[in-house]
User: Which sequence fits this backbone?
C-alpha cells in the first residue's frame, strides 16, 4: 500500500470499530467518548492558539493520545513545533515553545523536559533519512509526526511536511519496486510505536479481526481496551493503580485477572487475551499524571506526597494550580496561584459568600496585595491574612509572583469547592 | 491470591453486594435446564445488570440442554460475547457432564468457533473412566 495522498486511511481501516459493533453488537462507550473528547479538545486547543502570531512556515502539532483519538483525563499536551524549511534558531520561530505551552493552558509536562518536544523540528532535518545525520531524536520525531500527530495550528504546513517525509521514504519505490528499505528499517526500529501508538489503532486492530473473520474475538479485545481507556479517564482508578504495589495487583477488584508476567509495570492489561494482541503493549505502558481519589480508604494508603507544582492540574490558563487536591489535603484549602509579570486583571473579590479567611504566602517573585483598596508589599519576607468580608486583589511585580493561598472557615470543617477538585471543568475552557 | 476468575453459578447469588467486591474476577456461568434461573439471555442479563464488571463463563452443554438447536448458545454469545472469559466444554448425557459426544461435534463447532481466544475447560472425567459407562 502506498499511503501517499491517502495518509489518514491507507488500509481502509476507518470505521472498523463501528463495523465491529455492527457485526457483534458490542459497544465501546469509553473509546467513543475518548474520540469525541479528543475532537472537542482539539477545537479548544485550536481556538487557544488562534491568536498567537505564527510564522507562515510553522505548525503546532499535538502528539500521543491526541493522534490516537484517545484523550483521557490522564493525557498530556505533548506538542511539537514544526517548521517547513531549513534549520534556524529556535528564537527565530514563532510561536515560541514556552509561549505555545502557556497558550495551551500550561498544563501537563513542561516542554523541554524531553528533547523531542523542547525545540522546534525542521523539515530539512526530518527529511534527512538514514546515515549519521539521522539520529534517534530525528527518527522519533519523524515517526511521531507520521503516526500520531494532529495539527492545532498551521494545518497546511503540517500536512505538507508529512507528505514530504513520506515522499522521502518512498521515492526509491519508483526506481525498482524494491521495498523502501529505510522505511522498513525505521518501522522495525519503531515496531513498538507502529504496533502500539498508531493513529486510530483501535480501528486498525478492529479491521484486522474483521478481515480475519473473527469479530467475536475482536469485540472482546476492544471491550478490554475500552475498559482500560475508561480507567485512564477515571481519577479514582488511576489513583488506585498508581498506589497499588505490583505484588498486590491480584487484590484489586478493579484490576481483575493478573497481567501476564512479562508486563513488568504494575499496570498491565485487563484480560489474559490481551497477551495475543498488540494492545497488550498499550496496556503495559504505565501511568502518567496520576490523579487522586476521594475515597478515604484509598487515601489512607499514602500518608505523604511530594509533587512538582508545575506538574499539577491547573485552570485559568495555568494560573490556578489545584495544589490541595493534587496533594490530597482535605482539612484546609490550599491553592498555588501563578501570575505573570505586571498582570493587572487578577479579579478583586471577597469571601463573604463562604466565610473563608485566607493567608497569602509568596513562593517566588513578588508584588503587592490590595486589601480593601490599600496596597501592601507581598514578598518572601511578608505574609498576609485576609478576612472573609475583605476585598483583595493581587498585583504581581516585574518578575510575576507565585503565591500559596491557604483558606478555611473559622470553626467549621473544610469543604472543598468544586472548582478546586481534580477533573472539574476549567471555566476558561468552553466545554 | 493469584486467582484470575471465580466462576459462580448465578442461582447462588442472592445479594449481589459481596460479589461486586470481586470486580472483574467474578465470572458468571449460564445454567442448564434443571435450574430455575440463569439459563436464558434475559435471565443472565439480570445478573450482569447487577454485576456489571463480571465476566461470562459459557457452558455450551448447559445451553444445549435448554435449546438443542443452539440458537440460545448463539444468543448468549451475541449478547455477552465481549465479556466472555472461558468456555466449559462437554456434552450432557444422562444428567452427567461427559466429553463431547460425536453427535455434538458438528453441532457445537460453529458456536465454539466464536470462542477461540478464551480458555476452554474440558468439563468431564477422562475418557478411560467414562468410556465403559457411556458407550
Assistant:
Amino acid at each position: 500500500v502506498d499511503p501517499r495522498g491517502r495518509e489518514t486511511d491507507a488500509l481502509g481501516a476507518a470505521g472498523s470499530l463501528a463495523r465491529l459493533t455492527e457485526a457483534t453488537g458490542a459497544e465501546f462507550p469509553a473509546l467513543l467518548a475518548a474520540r469525541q473528547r479528543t475532537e472537542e479538545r482539539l477545537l479548544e486547543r485550536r481556538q487557544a492558539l488562534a491568536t498567537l502570531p505564527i510564522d507562515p512556515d510553522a505548525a503546532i502539532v499535538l502528539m500521543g493520545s491526541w493522534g490516537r483519538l484517545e484523550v483521557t483525563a490522564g493525557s498530556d499536551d505533548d506538542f511539537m513545533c514544526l517548521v517547513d524549511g531549513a534549520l534556524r534558531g529556535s528564537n527565530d520561530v514563532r510561536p515560541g515553545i514556552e509561549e505555545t505551552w502557556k497558550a495551551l493552558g500550561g498544563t501537563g509536562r513542561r516542554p523541554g523536559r524531553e528533547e523531542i518536544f523542547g525545540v522546534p523540528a525542521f523539515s530539512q532535518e526530518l527529511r534527512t533519512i538514514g546515515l549519521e545525520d539521522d539520529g534517534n531524536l530525528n527518527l522519533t520525531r519523524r515517526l511521531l509526526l507520521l503516526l500520531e500527530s494532529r495539527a492545532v495550528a498551521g494545518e497546511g504546513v503540517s500536512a505538507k511536511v508529512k507528505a514530504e517525509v513520506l515522499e522521502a521514504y518512498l521515492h526509491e519505490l519508483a526506481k525498482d519496486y524494491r521495498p523502501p528499505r529505510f522505511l522498513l528499517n525505521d518501522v522495525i526500529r519503531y515496531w513498538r510505536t507502529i504496533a502500539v501508538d498508531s493513529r486510530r489503532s483501535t480501528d486498525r486492530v478492529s479491521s484486522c479481526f474483521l478481515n480475519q473473520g473473527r469479530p467475536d474475538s475482536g469485540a472482546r479485545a476492544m471491550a478490554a481496551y475500552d475498559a482500560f481507556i475508561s480507567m485512564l479517564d477515571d481519577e479514582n482508578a488511576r489513583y488506585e493503580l498508581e498506589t497499588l504495589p505490583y505484588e498486590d495487583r491480584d487484590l484489586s477488584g478493579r484490576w481483575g485477572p493478573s497481567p501476564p508476567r512479562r508486563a513488568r509495570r504494575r499496570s498491565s492489561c485487563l484480560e489474559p487475551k490481551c497477551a495475543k494482541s498488540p494492545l497488550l503493549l498499550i496496556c503495559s505502558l504505565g501511568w502518567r499524571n496520576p490523579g487522586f481519589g476521594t475515597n478515604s480508604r484509598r487515601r489512607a494508603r499514602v500518608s505523604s506526597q511530594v509533587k512538582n507544582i508545575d506538574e499539577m492540574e491547573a485552570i485559568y490558563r495555568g494560573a490556578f494550580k489545584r495544589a490541595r487536591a493534587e496533594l490530597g489535603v482535605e482539612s484546609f484549602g490550599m491553592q498555588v496561584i501563578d501570575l505573570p509579570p505586571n498582570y493587572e486583571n487578577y479579579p478583586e473579590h471577597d469571601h463573604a459568600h463562604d466565610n473563608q479567611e485566607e493567608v497569602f504566602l509568596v513562593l517566588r517573585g513578588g508584588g503587592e496585595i490590595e486589601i480593601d483598596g490599600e496596597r501592601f508589599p507581598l514578598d518572601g519576607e511578608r505574609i498576609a491574612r485576609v478576612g472573609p468580608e475583605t476585598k483583595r486583589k493581587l498585583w504581581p511585580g516585574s518578575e510575576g509572583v507565585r503565591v500559596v493561598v491557604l483558606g478555611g472557615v473559622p470553626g467549621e470543617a473544610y469543604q472543598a469547592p468544586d472548582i478546586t477538585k481534580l477533573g472539574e471543568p476549567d471555566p476558561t475552557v468552553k466545554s | 491470591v493469584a486467582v484470575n476468575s471465580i466462576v459462580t453459578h448465578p442461582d447462588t447469588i442472592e445479594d449481589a453486594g459481596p460479589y461486586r467486591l470481586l470486580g472483574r474476577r467474578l465470572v458468571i456461568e449460564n445454567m442448564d435446564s434443571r435450574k430455575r434461573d440463569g439459563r436464558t439471555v434475559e435471565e443472565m442479563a439480570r445478573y450482569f445488570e447487577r454485576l456489571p464488571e463480571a465476566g461470562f463463563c459459557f457452558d455450551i452443554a448447559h445451553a444445549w440442554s435448554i435449546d438443542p438447536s443452539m440458537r440460545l448458545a448463539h444468543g448468549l454469545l451475541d449478547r455477552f460475547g465481549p465479556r466472555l472469559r472461558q468456555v466449559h466444554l462437554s456434552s450432557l448425557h444422562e444428567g452427567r457432564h461427559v466429553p463431547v459426544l460425536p453427535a455434538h461435534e458438528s453441532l457445537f463447532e460453529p458456536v465454539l468457533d466464536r470462542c477461540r481466544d478464551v480458555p476452554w475447560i474440558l468439563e468431564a472425567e477422562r475418557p478411560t473412566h467414562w468410556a465403559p459407562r457411556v458407550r
Notes: DSSP finds 17 helices and eleven strands in chain A.
